[in-house]
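[step 3/7] inverse_fold.run input=structure_tokens len=81
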């Protein structure tokens, strides 16, 4: 069993060695984009958050139940309509 596990790792490292240049290109491009996004990101937190109302329409095609009444009451308390 141990010999099979080592064979897997040996094959893995052979593949890594064979494709080392390609892997390095991907890693360098990835790091470049990370640095680019970090440098261009806005460091000031957004402090102008405001709630806004959404227009919601509920169409109840079943009979009135405590579940639908509770949902309507909850949405009304959040002033969504």
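[step 3/7] decode complete -> sequence:
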């Amino acid at each position: 069993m141990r010999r099979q596990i080592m064979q897997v790792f040996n094959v893995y490292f052979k593949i890594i060695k064979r494709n080392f240049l390609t892997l390095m290109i991907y890693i360098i491009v990835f790091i470049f984009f990370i640095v680019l996004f970090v440098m261009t990101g806005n460091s000031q937190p957004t402090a102008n958050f405001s709630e806004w109302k959404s227009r919601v329409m509920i169409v109840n095609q079943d009979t009135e139940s405590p579940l639908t009444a509770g949902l309507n009451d909850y949405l009304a308390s959040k002033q969504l309509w």
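[step 4/7] annotate
The chain has a mean pLDDT of 83.
Residues 2-40 form one domain.
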